[in-house]
Design a protein that fits this description.
Structural class: alpha/beta
CATH architecture of the largest domain: Up-down Bundle
Number of helices: 21
CATH topology of the largest domain: ABC transporter transmembrane region fold
Distance between the termini: 53 Å
């Protein structure tokens, strides 16, 4: 997030990113207020009422001087004092009501916007989350949208309140005496200009001080961290780093002292001008009464006008800075709307299909794809996995194995060609229906911060305890869960960090078993398991794959050899992505002659990778 300058000033970063304010943008912002327009009108009424009530204590003060004190009437003095007290209490109560209404409107708009943002982000494609920084997503959802409350209850309320205060005060001043009102208005710039001048100087010093603070924090983080401290000791740079710290710390101290002293001079100047303003009004009033013989002007009226002029200072200063508050508010909404306007690339089409997938072949037809326009991952991939078959995909690292399987549940869409399930292009499916028919276990197992039971029921919310136990037994994880003090109510921790990689993977496999999908996709689903653990659940995997169309990416030769067909991804040539270089069973692929310029890709993989893994699988159980 960008650093914000103090009230009344924009940072260089804010100036370089000024939003373009247009009527459609304003209208879009106001659309969030529309459902609450009745309360918003009530806010305006209470602000206007508060401004009028705020005038009365000053006006009553004038009457106290002219009528009660000069007239020497204790009864009237008491009545006027009570009246002033009553108006002050009423003004405060109205202010409380205004604050409540503003807070209510602001929080309900936040509620609406967060719901809208969450629903929109849920529909964004997988590509959005792989390219967008997670911190930015959280900032938009929390900080930026929460800042809307400040715009409603802060900026908007301040604008209405300040305008109302200025208008009602000017009306009261000119209603008393137009000559004195003009003199009172002429005093205001003497109060406002020093504030802006001193504010600029303080902001400059604060900016320089913050930059030095950042430099000092960087130095502390680098040299006093575990790695930095060790490096400092190994190269005996303690004295050098200490001297650097003393220098930076000295500069921070000097800037902090200047900033504090500048504030004192500012307060001194403001104190002088604050006292000078009333003196000028008293002088002008005295001149009009004593010299000019102004009969309609009284001492009490002068006293009231001084109080009213002082009441003008803060709202006028605030309105002079309205451009900054307005710009920041527009920038806030612009950042939020930027996310709302991101297109949803992958969604269900109109008249989406929900075909029967009891017998569903998976076909790739001349598929081309690249994550960026200039780098092709898949060149011309075509293959068919028949209903009920188990196909294994192998290939060198980076050949696009995971990319291929991500097209089936439409985590990504192809750039060219098409992927069909049961003869229907996956882009024509109802997206929810398509994904409900697919069970996928990825190599990066993810568990929510909750209990094992909650993570399992993510696949089937109404699953019974018997179904949970059966799925976990099939995945060889039930005995581990039962041995825990809390059993299935054991907390897994953030991202499942309280469990080992193998335990998490077996829970994720149990979760897919519980889903009971038509199509099964395993992306190195047993990569976090040792050979013994994998052997324990291999029968379970074969059981759930039986009768289902399955695609497996595996690094273990035993899994690959059991496949009905093996799809070998190989390079299509320089500056081109991968193609299906070979297709067949394990024995067929080893017997094949060299295929194309790349030769026998599968034989090379077998000799360099799989054969070594096979030897490890044979020897590991004996050693254990």
């Amino acid at each position: 997030m960008q650093r914000m300058g103090p009230r009344g000033f924009l940072t260089d970063e804010e100036k370089s990113n000024l939003p373009k304010v247009t009527w459609p943008l304003i209208r879009r912002i106001l659309s969030y207020l529309t459902p609450y327009w009745v309360r918003f009108v009530l806010v305006f009424v209470t602000i206007l009422l508060s401004s009028v009530l705020g005038l009365l204590p000053s006006i009553i003060t004038g009457r106290i001087v002219d009528e009660a004190l000069v007239g020497e009437s204790m009864a009237l003095l008491l009545q006027l004092i009570l009246a002033a007290l009553a108006t002050m209490i009423a003004s405060q109560l109205v202010s409380v009501l205004t604050s409540y209404l503003n807070a209510w409107i602001g929080q309900h708009i936040i509620f609406d916007m967060k719901n809208q943002m969450y629903a929109h982000l849920q529909q964004m494609s997988h590509a959005f989350f792989t390219t967008e920084r997670q911190g930015d997503v959280i900032t938009r959802m929390n900080s930026d949208i929460s800042g809307v409350s400040g715009v409603i209850s802060g900026t908007l309320q301040n604008i209405l309140s300040n305008v109302s205060t200025v208008i009602t005060t000017l009306v009261a001043l000119f209603g008393m005496n137009w000559k004195m009102a003009i003199i009172g208005i002429l005093v205001i710039p003497l109060l406002v200009l020093p504030t802006r001048s001193a504010g600029r100087q303080r902001w400059k010093l604060l900016s320089e001080g913050q930059a030095k603070h950042d430099e000092m924090n960087q130095l502390i983080n680098e040299t006093l961290s575990v790695s930095g401290s060790m490096l400092t000791k190994l190269f005996t740079r303690e004295k050098t780093e200490y001297d650097r710290f003393v220098t930076v710390n000295g500069e921070v101290t000097k800037l902090a002292l200047k900033e504090q002293l500048s504030g004192r001079w500012f307060r001194l100047t403001m104190g002088i001008f604050t006292q000078l303003g009333p003196l000028l009004i008293y002088f002008a009033g005295g001149y009009l009464i004593i010299v000019a013989g102004e009969t309609g002007l009284t001492v009490g009226m002068i006293t009231a006008m001084v109080a009213l002029v002082n009441r003008l200072y803060r709202p006028v200063e605030s309105l002079l800075n309205i451009q900054v508050d307005f710009t920041r508010s527009m920038a806030l909404f612009t950042r939020i709307f930027d996310y709302f306007d991101r297109p949803i690339d992958i969604k269900s089409p109109e008249n989406a299909k929900k075909p029967d997938l009891t017998h569903a072949d998976i076909c790739f037809e001349h598929v081309k794809f690249g994550y960026t326009e200039d780098v092709e991952i898949l060149h011309d991939v075509s293959f068919t996995v028949r209903s009920g078959e188990m196909a294994a995909i192998v290939g060198a690292s980076g050949s696009g194995k995971s990319t291929v399987i991500n097209f089936i549940p439409r985590l990504w869409d192809v750039d060219a060609g098409r992927v069909t399930v049961g003869g229907v292009d996956v882009r024509d499916f109802d997206l929810t229906y398509l994904r409900s028919q697919i069970g996928m276990v990825s190599q990066e197992t993810y568990l929510f911060n909750g209990t094992i039971r909650e993570n399992l029921r993510y696949a089937k919310a109404d699953a019974t305890d018997e179904e949970l136990i059966a799925a976990c037994k099939a995945a060889s994880i039930h005995d581990f869960i039962a041995a825990q003090p809390n059993g299935y109510d054991t907390e897994v921790g953030n991202r499942g960090l309280k469990l080992s990689g193998g335990e998490k993977q077996r829970i994720s496999i149990a979760r897919v078993i519980l889903k009971n999908p038509r199509i099964l996709i395993l992306d190195e689903a047993t990569s976090a398991l040792d050979s013994i653990s994998e052997s324990n659940i291999q029968d379970a995997l074969e059981f759930i794959m039986k009768g289902r169309t399955s695609i497996v990416i595996a690094h273990r030769l035993s899994t690959i050899m059991s496949a009905d067909k093996i799809l070998v991804l190989g390079s299509a040539g320089e500056d081109k992505g991968s193609v299906i270089a070979q297709c067949g069973t394990h024995d067929e692929l080893l017997r094949q002659s060299d295929v194309g310029p790349a030769g026998n890709v599968y034989r090379e993989l077998f000799e360099t990778q799989f054969n070594k893994v096979l030897e490890m699988e044979r020897t590991l159980p004996e050693n254990t």
